[in-house]
Amino acid sequence: MVTEKENMEEKYYTLDLKQIYEKFNTDPAEGLSKDEAEKRFEELGPNEIPRVSKGFIKIYLAPLFNWLIVIYLIGALILFVASLLQGQDSNFYMIALTLGIVGLNCIVAIVQQFRATKKLNALRELSAPTTTVIRDGDKTEVMTKKVVVGDLLVLEQGDKIPADARIIQSSNMEVNEASLTGESESVMKMEVGRALEKDSIPVGDRKNMVFYGTYVTMGTGSAITVSTGGDTEIGKISRGLEEAGTSEIPIRKKMNNFGKWLGLAVLLFWFIILMIIYIASGFTRLEIVKSLNSAMDIMPINIPLLTTIVLLTGVLAMARQGVIIRNLASVDSLGRVSVVCSDKTGTMTKNQMSVQYAWVYDSLFKASGSGYDPDGDIFLMDDPKNLVIVTHVDDFPQLKQLLVSGFLNNNAALVKNEIDTDGKVIYDWKVLGSPTEGALMVLFQKAMGDYVLDDYKSIKEFPFDSSLKRMTKAFRKNSSIHSFTKGASEIVIPLCSKILTEDGEIEFSEDLKNKVMNKVDYYANMGYRILSICYKRMDDLPFDQDNAREICESDMVYIGFVTILDPPREGVKQSVEQCHNAGVEVIMITGDSPATARAIGSQIAIVEDDDDLAIEGNEIEHYINKPEFDDIKVFARVSPKHKQDIVEKYQSEKRVVAMTGDGVNDALALNMADAGIAMGIQGTDVAKEASDMVISDDSFNSIVKGIHQGRGIFAKIRAVVFFYICINLFEGIVQFILAVIFDLPYFLDEQYYWQWIFLSITLHTFPGLILTFDIISDDVMKDKPKDSEEILSRNTVYLMLAFGALLALSMVITYFVSITGIYPVFKENHEFGFFNDGYLYSSATSRLTEGTNLRTAKSLTMLMVTL
Q1: Cα–Cα–Cα angle for 97, 102, 103, nearest 5°?
Q2: I want to staple 678 with a disulfide (CB 3.0 to 4.6 A). Which of 258, 618, 688, 707 is the partner?
Q3: Given 243, 265, 296, which residue is the final one in a domain?
Q4: Residue 120 domain flag
C-alpha cells in the first residue's frame, strides 16, 4: 500500500487500472477485505477534512500585542495604581475610557482572526454520512469517514462521492462538480476508466476521475478510491487555507507602527518636561497623575479606532452596492488594487448562452434579444445593410427545419419567474437543463412563439456522449420515423450525405463540406461555440438492434449550424474603461478557449490591439519570467493552480491583486489575493468562506463600484490620520513650550484640569468622527492606484510637521500676547478657545491632503466640524 506522501504526489488519472489495483493491493472483483480496510483506517485515519485548531492565546490574546494598545494599557495600569495610592476615584473614568477603546480594537481584531477558522466548515459539509463499497465481494454500506484508499465504490444517481477515486466503469454517468470547479453544468465521465495521456490536466478535465464532495446527477458507475480526507483535492485546499490565516489590515498596520513611534516620542517629551519641572520646583503625586493623563490624551489612540470606524462605514456603503465585505483588510486592498483578475463566465458575461447567428445553405440569420428572454426577433442577413425581419417562418423552410430540429432534440425547459420589485413586476427567465439546449429553446420561441409540435411522438433518445460528441432523438410522425442529431461540426458533417437547400435536398459533396467547415472555422475563430444540426427520415427503425444509433446517425441530411455565445453583461465595457482610467489593469480568466475569451475580451475593451495576448494556462510557465507577460490580457483553459501562479506573479511585482472565483478549487487563489472576491449566486460556500468579499449579483460592475468605495475610504483615512497626527504634534509642542520655556504648566492646575478633560474628550473625538462620514468624490477613479505607504508619504509627513508647528506657534504667540496683557482675554476661557481653534484648523486642513475633497458638496461636513 502506498504511503500518504506518495499518495499526494501520484497522478492517478495517468495510470492504467491494472497499475492502480496493484498499487493498492485491491482485488478488482472482491475489493478489500474488512480486516484490511480496518487496518488502513487505523494507519491513515478517518476520511475527513482536517479541522483548523488555533490556541487560545493566538486567537484571543494576539490582538493585544499592538504597540499603541500596549502603551495605553501600561498607562491605564499606572493610573489605576496611582488612584489606589491616592484613595481617589477621579481617574477611573479615564481608565474605563482607555479600556473601552482598547476593547473595541481587540474585538475587531479577534473577529478578524477567528473568521479564518470558519473557512473549513463548509468543506466539511460536502461529504455524505454513508456510502456503498465492495468488501469481501459484497456490497456494504459504511460511514463515509470509514472509506479508505483501495476501496471499490458503487456510485448511483444522487450519490455524493465520498473520496477522490479513479473510474472503473460508468454507464452514462454525469457528475456535478460545481462544488469543486464552480462549473454548474454536469460532466460526462468515461464509460471505461482508461488512462489519460497528458501529464498535467486541470481537475475539471479529468474525465476518468471523480472527486470528494461532488455528486452523481445521472447514470451509474464504479470507482477505486485513490485519495481520502486531507489527500483529496478538497483536502489539499483545506491545508492551504489552514496555513494562509488572516492578515492584518495594511493601513492599520502602518498606522499602528507610526503610532508606536509617535506615542513613544510623546512619552519621552513628557518625561523630559516632568524632570525639568521636578528639578525646578518639585511636584506632588497628584501632578504626576494629571501629567500622565495629559500624556495619554495626546497619544494617537484614536487613529486605529477611527480607521476601523471608517472601514466599517465603508462596509455598509459597499453592502448597498452589492459588495458584501467579510474581511476588513479587503476594504483597504480593494481601494489600492492595481490589477483585477476576473472570471469571464457569469461575471463579465451573463452566464446565459444565446444563439447569435443561424446558418443554412446560402442564408445567414441573426437573432436579437438578450440571454434566455425569448423576447427578440430573427433577421435575414443576405444584405447586411438591409436586414429583413422574419415574420412568417414558413417562408423560410430551411430555417424552420433547423428551429424544429433544435427544439425537438432537446431536454431543456424555459421557466419564467415573476419578481416584484417595489410594486413593479419584472420577469426573470431561467433554463432547467443544459444552457446550450436552453439557447436553442429560446431561438425557437423567438421565431415560432408557442408553436405546438404535437404530431411528433418521442420514441427513442441516444444521449450525448463525450467520445461521440453528438446527441440524437427519434420521433414518430404519422407513419414515418424522424431522427434529429446535433453535435460538433467536425463529427456531424462527415455523417451527412445530403444538405438541405431552398429547393430541397441535394448531395453533400466533399467540396461543399469543406466550404461549410470553412464557415464553421470562421465563426469558431471569432469565439463562438458552433453546433451543427441535421435530420433523417426513415420508414421504420428496429430500436432493439445494437446498431440502432448507428442507423439513425448515418446518411443524414445536413440543415445548418448555429453560433452560440455567452454575451457580455450590460455596462461591463464601461466598467472596464473606468478601470483603465483609474490605472487598474483588468485581466480575464476563463476555462473557455483562447479564441472565445479573446472575442469577448475585444467586446468589453480588455483586448484592445493585436499586441494584447490571449494564452492558455499551460503556457503561463513559458511567459512567467518574460516581459511579454505584461501583454497578456486573457488567460484561457485555466486551472486553479494557474490562478495561484497568476496572483503570485503580480504580487511579486508589488501589485495589489483582486481575484474572483466561485469553485472550491478557487479557494486558495482567493485566499492568496489581496482582495479575494467570491460570487454570491454561482459561488460555492467554500469559495465564499475563503473570500474577503462576496459580490451579491456576480457582476463585474459591482467590483468596480467596490473599488470606488475603497478609494474613497483610503482618502477618508488619510484625512483622519492627518488630522490626529497634526493635533497631537500641536498639543505636544504647545505643552512642551509652555512647561519648559514659559514655566507655565497651568494645565496641571486644579481649576483647569476638568476643562482640559472636556477638551480631550470632545475635540479628540468629534472632528475626526465627522471626517469619517465625508462624501466620496467620483474623481477618485481618475487617480492612479495608491500604495499603503502613501498614507504617510514623505510629503505628507512634511506637511503635517509644518501645520503642527504652525498651529503650535500661533497658539504660543496668542497665549503670550494674552497672558502679558497685550491682548487680554478671560483667563478661564483662553485655553479652551485657543485649542478649539487649533483643532478646527487641523480638521479643515486635513481635507486638503486630497485635492478631490475641495468641493462645494463638502460644505456640510465642514459645517459639522465647525459646530
Answers
A1: 95
A2: 688
A3: 243
A4: no
Which residues on neighbouring strands pair with residue 616, listed in sequence order? 636
The answer to whether 142 and 216 are in contact (CB under 8 A) is no
The contacts of residue 750 (CB under 8 Å, 6+ apart) are none
Q: In this structure, is residue 813 part of a structural domain?
A: yes
Other C-beta atoms closer than 10 Å to the C-beta of 809 total 14
- Sequential DSSP letters for 117-163: GGGGHHHHTTS-SEEEEEETTEEEEEEGGG--TTPEEEE-TTPBP-S
Q: What is the CATH number of the domain that holds 337?
A: 3.40.50.1000
Q: The cell 517629551 sits on which residue? A: 269
Last residue within a domain, chosen from 511, 539, 565: 565
Segment 449-468, tens digit of pLDDT = 877 788 899 998 888 876 67
Query: Using one digit for the tens of pLDDT, what is the confidence trace for 625-647?
Result: 899 999 999 998 887 778 889 99
- In sequence order, the 6+-apart residues with CB closer than 8 A to the CB of 593 are 527, 636, 637
**What is the distance between the alpha carbons of residues 761 and 705, in angstroms, rounded to a whole number?**
36
Q: What is the Cα–Cα distance from 105 to 112, expressed in whole angstroms?
A: 11
d(CA 160, CA 216): 7
In the numeric block, which cell numbers belong to residue 233?
A: 483535492
Please name the residue that has the C-alpha cell 469543486: 180
286, 289, 291, 292 alpha-carbon torsion, rounded to 10°: 170
Looking at the DSSP bridge assignments, the partners of residue 480 are 477
Q: Which run of H or E residues covers position 494?
A: none
Of the candidates 440, 448, 452, the one whose C-alpha atom is nearest the C-alpha of residue 372 is 440
The span from the CA of 662 to the CA of 417, in Å, is: 24
Max mean pLDDT range (29-38, 81-90, 722-731): 29-38
**Strand 657-661 vs strand 675-679: parallel, antiparallel, or unpaired?**
parallel
Does the CA dihedral 784-785-789-791 come out positive or negative? positive
What's the CA gap between 351 and 679, in Å, rounded?
12
Residues 399 and 424 in one domain: yes
Task: Give residue 587's domain range.
Answer: 324-349+571-696
330: in domain: yes
| Residues 510-540 pLDDT 10s | 999 999 999 999 998 887 889 999 999 998 8
Specify if 384 maps to a domain: yes
Write out the DSSP string of 208-251: TEE-TT-EEEEEEEEEEEEE-GGGSHHHHHHHHHHHH--PPPHH
Which residue type, as a one-letter code, is found at position 716? K
Q: Distance between CA 604 and CA 571 in Å, rounded?
A: 9
Q: Mention every residue, 6+ apart, whose C-beta is less than 8 A from residue 306.
A: 720, 724, 768, 769, 772
pLDDT for the residue 608: 86
Distance CA 522, CA 686 (A): 40
The pLDDT of residue 4: 45
DSSP 3-state assignment of 281? coil
Is the torsion defined by CA of 118, 123, 128, 133 positive or negative?
negative
